[in-house]
Amino acid sequence: MPKIETTGKHFYRLLGKTLSDAELEAIFPVAKAELDGHEDDVLKIELNDTNRPDLWSAAGLARQLKAYWGIEAPLYDFFSTSEEAFDHEGRVLIVDVSAKEVRPYSIGFAARGHKVDEDELEALIQSQEKLCSNFGRKRKTIAMGIYRSDLITYPVHYRGADPDATKFIPLGMDQELTLRQICTEHPKGREYGPIVSDCAVFPYLHDDNNETLSFPPVINSARIGAVEVGDEHLFLELSGMDLKDLLLAAAIMACDMSDMGFEILPVQVQFPEETEFGTKITVPYYFQDPISCSLAQIHKTLGECMSGEQAVSALKRMGIYAIESEGSIYATVPEYRNDFLHPVDVIEDVMIGYGLGNFAPEMPQDFTVGRLSKAEEMGRKVKDLMVGLGFQEMMYNYLGSKKEYVDNMAFPQEKCIFIANPMSENYEVVRPSIIPSLLESESVSAHAPFPHKIFEVGKVALIDSSDNSGTTTRNNLGFLASDSVMGYNEASSLVNTLFYFLGQEYGLAPLEGDGRFIEGRCASVVCNDVPVGVFGEVHPAVLEKWGSTMPTIACELDLDVLMTE
Q1: What is the pLDDT along the chain (565 residues), one digit of tens a residue?
Q2: Edge-to-edge order in the sheet of strand 530-538
Q3: Cα-based distances in Å from 286 to 78, 248, 322
Q4: Dihedral over alpha carbons 310, 314, 317, 319 (to 10 degrees)
Q5: Are 409 and 450 a contacting pair, CB within 8 Å?
Q6: Using CA atoms, how far apart are residues 292 and 95, in angstroms rounded to an integer?
C-alpha cells in the first residue's frame, strides 16, 4: 500500500489546525489511512486504498478530513469541460505525431502566484513520485515533470526524437549527453531508460526556442527542469499511454497545488489525431461522468434505512455534491476522483460519511447449519485422489502477467480477462488456466530430484459472452508431471486412474490447434459428448519459454462441468 511522509508543519497548515497522534489515529480511517509513525516533526502515513490516488498526499488527506468535518470544500473553478474551455493565454503544448511510436500522450498545466517553500517542494516531488510509481506503474504509463515556467517560451513541443542526435544536460549532471547515453550513464536513465530504450524514437519535450524541458519518462533538464525553493512560476507536464489516467493525475496535482495557494493556469494541448475528448483539450480538464444509486440499493447493501437527506449529508462529508430525487441519489464526481465504477462505490462513501459507529449491531435472526457445497466436496475428493497418486498440492495467485498466461503459453489473448487499470503488469490478467502456474513452479525446480509431480484445484476465469457478466469462473484441476520418461501414455494412465476412482465414464477426442501441447501427443477429454478438459505432452517451445528442459506432461479438467455430467 502507498506510504507518504509529511512534516507536521505542512500538514497542519493545510488542515487548519493541529491534532494529537491519538486524534489522527481516530480520524484517519475516514480517508482509509493510518498513522504509521511520528518522529520529530515527520508524520509517516500509510494509505489503505489503491483506488484513491488523490489521498496519496498531505493536501489530499487534509481535503478529505476537512470535508468530513463539514468545512466547505474549495471551489476548483479552473477546470475546462467539453462545453467550455478557459482562455489558455498562449500557453500551448503541441504533441507531434512522431510521439505515437513511443508514448502517444502528453498534457500539462501551469501555476503561479505562490513561492514554493521547502516543505511544499518536497510534498510536490513526493506526490509526483507516488503518482508515477504506484498509479503510473513505475513511470511506464504515467511520467510527470515539474518545470520553471518563467524560463519556457510557449508553445511547448512533445515529439519522438532521434536518441543519438538529440542531446541536453540532464538534471544532476554538468555535461551534455544524448538521449541514448542518458539511458546508460545517468542513474535515472539506468532505472527508467528500459521503458523506452527498445523504441526507434525517444520521447522529448522542449520549448519553442528548442530549450530542453525533459526526456520523459527518465529525467528533466538541468536548467528548466531544476525547480528550487522560492520558485513561483511552475509548469507541470505528464506523458503516458492512457489519456484518462493522465488527466486524472493532472487534476489531482492541480487541486493539491491550488490548496497550497497557487493560481492554476490552463494550457491548451493539441493532439495530431482525434482522441476521445477531441484534438484540442484545455487542461486541467473535467471528464468524470455523474453517477447515481437508489435509496433501496443503499438500504439493501448497508442494512440501514436512510432518508435521502441522510445519504446526501453523508456524501457531502466525503467531499461529494449530491441531490436526492424520487428515491435515488445523484452524485457529481469530484474533479480529483475517478473511482466510481458502480453504484456500490457511491454506497461505500455513504457508509464512511454516515459513520461506521452509527450502524447499530444486529444479532442474526436465522439459525443455519453450515455444510460443504458440491463444488467443495468434489474438490476435496479430487485432492485426496491426486495425493494418493503421488502428487503434491500447490496454491497460486489468480492474477498474473500477460507474459505468463498468454505469451509463454501460445494461449489466445481474446479469451483472457484483463484488468483495466492494473497497479503492476505482474497482476494484469485473471488466469485462464492452471497450467501456467504449474509450469512456473517447474521452471524454478530443476535442482530438485525428479520426478516432479504437482497439482492444484483452483479457479480460472475466461471471457464468456453467454454470461450476463461477460465472463465465467470455473473450478479446475490442473496437474503436471516432469521426468525423462514422461509422455502421452503416462498422462493417459493418470487421467484413466482419476476417472476410475471418480466413478465416471469418459472418452478421448483429437485435440488440434492447442499450442501448449505437441500435435498428436495430446487429447481432449469428453464426457457425454461434452469437453471437460485436455491433457498431453507440453510442447518444447513452451518449455523453452519457461526455461525447462525436462519432458513434461500436463492436464487440466473442468470440475464444474464434470460434476454436471
Answers
A1: 789 999 999 999 999 999 999 999 999 999 989 999 999 889 999 998 778 999 999 999 999 999 999 998 789 999 999 999 999 999 999 999 999 989 999 999 999 999 999 999 999 999 999 999 989 989 999 999 999 999 999 999 999 999 999 999 999 999 999 999 999 999 999 999 999 999 999 999 999 999 999 999 999 999 999 999 999 999 999 999 999 999 999 999 999 999 999 999 999 999 999 999 999 999 999 999 999 999 999 999 999 899 999 999 999 999 999 999 999 999 999 999 999 989 999 999 999 999 988 888 888 888 888 889 999 999 999 999 999 999 999 999 999 999 999 999 988 888 899 988 787 788 899 999 999 999 999 999 988 999 999 999 999 999 988 888 889 999 999 999 999 999 999 999 999 999 999 999 999 999 988 999 999 999 999 998 899 999 999 999 999 999 998 999 999 999 999 888 6
A2: 392-393, 452-463, 471-482, 552-558, 530-538, 517-527, 507-510
A3: 9, 9, 17
A4: -110
A5: no
A6: 36
Please name the residue ranges forming H helices in 303-373: 308-316, 343-354
Residue with cell 493522465: 246
The strands making up 142-148's β-sheet, listed across from edge to edge, are 142-148, 234-240, 105-112, 263-265
As given in the structure block, the three cell numbers for residue 257 are 497545488
- Chain-centroid distance, C-alpha 32: 18
Nearest C-alpha neighbor of 421 from the set 319, 349, 332, 341:
341
